[in-house]
Protein 1
Amino acid sequence: MQRVVVLGGGESGAGSAVLAKVKGFDVFLSDNGLLKEETKAMLCKWEIEWEEGGHTLEKILNADEIIKSPGIPDNAPLILSAKEKGIKVISEIEFAGRYDNAKKICITGSNGKTTTTSLIYFMLKNAGLNVGLAGNIGQSYAYQVATEKYDYYVLELSSFQLDGMYEFKADIAILMNITPDHLDRYGFKMQNYINSKFRITQNMKEEDCFIFCQDDPVTIGELEKIVTRAKMLPFSQKEKVAQGAYVDDDKICVTVNGDTDFIYLKELALQGKHNMYNSMAAAIAAKAINIDKKVIRESLMTFTGVEHRMEKVMKIKNVMYINDSKATNVDSAWYALDSMTTPVVWIAGGKDKGNDYAPLFQLVKDKVRVLICMGLHNEKLHENFADKVDMIFDVQSAQDAVAKAYEVAQSGETVLLSPCCASFDLFKSYEDRGRQFKDAVRSL
């Protein structure tokens, strides 16, 4: 019996362990931290051996294959030891893909991938298709492959998940954009991160589709280097394209296989430049699998958006509070600030991933009156923005950030949580950060 060891007992790891068990492997799960009680209960129910609070090397380095959590870096000593012994290390997505015959629509990108993934899933559900949602969002893909039978999967894939994928193939691959992010995990080399994102196109065939942003210079610069047999379907707000989608005056035109549909911009549920890209990518994907044009239009008109992404919390004393906790990089915060039409009290900060804040300088000068730094180490934010805002404050909790914002915000302004950084210095995740922010706002 082949032995599969799962490293990390989060959503992805626990799901992988269940799938490995269902497929008849000898399974062992090991987590350096502590497992949630519900995870322990699930592993016991499936009769899976596990450990927490550290790794027992002899129980791990006798594996035929290791499935590692996306949170564990490739240069972790345990991973290097496994590779030295010739043990293959893969991601949950690679493992689950072996046992899944569903059509897979896969989305990656530095920004917009969660909204686009959720929008495509919404469209497929509205079309009455039997579809699962997984990857970097929702329930574990491996767990769903073990316990469900879907005809389609919409998978949001992070660069960390793509790094551990070798044989996996998308039927439709979508690359939203590439801007500097997670450079701390890629040796501070942008090309390493770009290579990671382009893994989404690997193994694609003539009948598959690659959807990408024609306006993203990094993507376009890389296209010449890759060899893919897939049908190329670009989307653009700047130029017309023969196949794919583009903006023409007041509407989006979408063409696949010579058939064109359009929708007026004012009818889109998601407004703003970045959301236009998300809507175009989703519409191309839906059209590529022959979803009815009426369903595509109605979905684009009624989709309500994603939690923690430009989510309006409430208005208090004529000040709007917006939760954009999902903005964990500079580019995401750029889109958020760019869409602001009022003066801003900006809450930013957290674990810096090697950020270059220069692209935000002019926007911050033009739009931000007060900066509230919410992190353990705020020196870099002070260095970059102290001369660009009227006031700058330091806080170390969501409650204090909201209290300070409430104290300094003036009628007609917007309090925007758009952190630019990862959440792990003060919070469990960006979701935890966003929920704590919303709770603090609601209790004002």
Protein 2
Amino acid sequence: MKYFLFLLVFSFSLCCENQKKPDAQDIVDMAIAQAGGERYYNSKIEFDFRDKNYCAVRDNADFKLERQTFKDSVVTTDILSNSYFLRLENEEQVALADSTKIKLSNSVNSVHYFSVLPYGLNDPTARKTYLGEVKVKGHNYHKIEVTFNEEGGGTDFDDVFLYWINTKNYYVDFLAYEFHVNGGGMRFREAYNERTINGIRFVDYKNYKPIDKVTKLHELDASFETSRLELLSNIELENVKVEECISC
């Protein structure tokens, strides 16, 4: 009888060991495929955000991200590519200090990065960790943490991101992040106004911050469920246009 019980326990342990833990990379790959997949790699995406015009041209590994601001008779264009950043005012290049270039580059990149999530999650410097399956607003989600290597990870490499990826359709419905610039803080975003344009999924976000200053980043989904987040703003992309871009 004891031998039988031993075999039963051993078999159960072996079964548990053989159950493969979900792989964060596989989940992210599926999320990208569901949101647009290969359409991202050769695309021209334009949109308006908070009185500025943005345009992203991606040609496989090459990219050019632009932001245009219009004030009085001056058109200011910021351009970020794989190898350079420059600012133009009415098509004339403006001399900038290196520190200013870094600040403006981060600002341009941030808006473009969030506009096409989850596409950017396969950046070579991104490290992904599976945190388990959780339930938010009655739906099941894979909870994924994304951090970045210091080398190649930019000036904000120490920021930490969380993504909630629906276990059925693999859409990113929620995200959160902790940042350290300007005094630092945390944000939680809820996706809404989902639409697909020429095969690429876009969403807007309700942007929240925690009411309680002792709340930890990994607790923000629980805080959202219990209404302990404060709505700061709506993040809305307007006039979104998507074109296929072959050898732009």
Protein 3
Amino acid sequence: MMNNLCFNRIFITFENSFNFTNSNQWMATKTESLEEFYRYKFHNLSENLKHDTGHFNVFNIEDRIRSGTVSPAYIRRDFYKIMLFRGNNVFHYGDESIPITGNTLLFFNPQVPYTYDALTPDTSGYFCVFKDEFFKENLRLSLNELPLFAPGAKPVFSLSLDEYMEVSSLFEKMVREIDTGYIYKYELIRNYVSELIYYAMKMQPSVVSFQHPDASSRITSVFTELLERQFPIESSAQRFNLRSPKDFAGKLSIHVNHLNRAVKKTTGKTTTDHIFERLTSEAKAMLKHTSWNIAEISYLLGFEDQAHFNNFFKKQTKINPSAFRMV
């Protein structure tokens, strides 16, 4: 079990798989949304996305093979994916190719483009997809603070048979639970995913050394750390102060245009996108899990007045703060 870990991270160059002479192709600037993922894979929108009940789903790989789903394009996705893979393949992740054999657990994050070779008929396993807010609204857990989802991380774990059975059982529980009418099913599923994440983190070496591939990645990493450092807001003495790209650029002692280019190049999203998404997630958490009134929340999140906060929140979520709090 955990004392006899088999940690496999075999990386080879992309020379035999892709020709990234075109820098635009290399950066994979297009980002696939979760909504596009469902329309592309299933030709419709997931019910849990329609009703905003957690942005989570789980799938059986064998079902996807039978349906004729092809391997994805080499692009970023705006959601996280965890995959339990049984078979042989090559996963193309960032600027590297990762050959895998046998039982493998893989983690993918929105900051890195990826794809994999065509699946063979004997491939099996599971994968789940979810958005960051699946955790932030409830546990206030920031996924990109975890080593598994850190910028530049490529966590690929080769599993023993016992480890495979243990991880497989968690996916099987998710598959069974997702179709039930249990009112707290997403809370239960969230616990299964958390167990899966922390199980894998126990498999990490005690010291993980990562070298950022370029200056843009380093700048993005520091920007993300500064953004996350302001959350969660747990007392009225705190206030969200770094609210604009210019604020962050000042802290980093770089020009705001340099920051914006670096973040866009590394993540495929603008600096403002990241700030607004994190601000919205914290607003949702505060509305659901604190007793502060909306005026207090708007002040703590750095808005000039409640009206500005109401307009921002409704623009981001299509619902006003009062209505969201009552859901």
Protein 4
Amino acid sequence: MKIAWQNCYSLDAAEIVVFGVLGQEGAIYTGTEQAPNEIRAASAKWLYAQPLSGKSIAVQPQGGPIRKKVLDAYNIDRKEMSSFVERLALKKKIPAMLGGGHAYTLEALKGIAGAHKDFSVVYFDSRLEMVSGEGISNSSVFSDALSLHQLKMQKSACAGCRAFRESELEKAKKQKLLVIPAVEVEQEGVKKTFRKIKKRVGKKVYLSFDIGCIDPSSAPGVSEPVPAGLTANQALSLAKMVAANGIVGFDIVEVNPLLDRSGITASLAAKILSEIIAGIR
């Protein structure tokens, strides 16, 4: 099964290449390895049949018709991720990873670093993921990413966070990372929040979307839910704005189908995927 919004069947012609990573390395709980295929299956809910032609057409996102050529390259092995992302980025294509654990974002960032001399990251998460010394871990992905000199953390941002370790806050401050807690988004609104992000980052941005940034009432299918998160519309709106401002790649991670209720988290992830794709200019 492919994502509903695939409109291209050639890697050479594609402008956005979606792919899944099935592993769960770095995750505490099992289940995230099922996410890519569950998100694809959820996207099928956005298809409607045309009886006369016998074809199925995808419902368009709120952001308008998808103009870019989108290919679903299906699933790849984690060990191939960095080189695969690098090849896509060198060809000016936008890699779009469906995870899987957030730890796999590090492999995608390595690939982006191989194609760009400098870039920023905007990530949506309930945590800062800047714990040190834990090896391959969801908790240390952005701490480990500091070894990539191409990644400019002082021009990067984290939004939706609300569970910190003191050492992470100290490291974020030292790296001059823009930290926007979920409560701040609620107080200041989406437009003001995006203006802060836009002022900080450039046009070469890797967007990493951990579904756990959203409040568990709307996205229960995550391994470590943290209350008082972003609303689905806040997160979706911000992600669309970041995508429209200019991105070189993105991912949607940490959906755990084993902990989901009626597939609503996978369905939300599919919706966010379509809106990010539609937002890319």
